[in-house]
Amino acid sequence: MAQSKKPRKGYKPKAIHLPMMAESRDRMAMKLHLNVETLITSPSSDAFNELCKKIASLTDALSHLRGRPIIDDRDAAANAIRTAVSTLSQIQERSERTETLGVTDLEALSLRNASGELVS
Q: What does the domain layout of the chain look like in residue ranges?
């Protein structure tokens, strides 16, 4: 068997692109908004953890789609995620310090703006 003169290129798997249906996107957006509003109106550790999980899953999904960490980017989605993570971090630090979980008006505004930017 004769060998070819050109070496074969290595296999590079491609990311699977799954388009999102409008209903799925709307359902995810509604769940994000409900998580934010639940934390604001009746703060609890469960509501806080659910919102943290939702933000983490969005961060992972966007990082996977882009092929690089989204935290390093400077677009609207990355800014919204950084804002949400920073706000959740402030809420957690105050909760550990005072032993009560609460959301201030400024933090509520920040979380609402971040969630609105993520789903737009």
A: 23-119
Residues 6+ apart with CB under 8 A from 96: none
DSSP annotation of 103: -
Give SS3 for 46. Answer: helix
What global pTM score does this model have? 0.79
C-beta separation of 81 from 70 below 8 A: yes
**Contact call for residues 44 and 101 (beta carbons, < 8 A):** yes
What span, in angstroms and rounded, lies between the C-alpha atoms of 110 and 88? 10
Quick: pLDDT tens for 5-52.
777 788 776 766 667 788 888 898 899 999 999 999 999 999 999 999
Cβ(108)–Cβ(116) under 8 Å? no
Q: Which stretch of 30-44, 72-86, 87-101, 105-119 has the lowest confidence by average pLDDT? A: 72-86
Best CA proximity match to 83, nearest among 49, 58, 47: 58
Report d(CA 50, CA 27) in Å as an integer: 16
Amino acid at 120: S
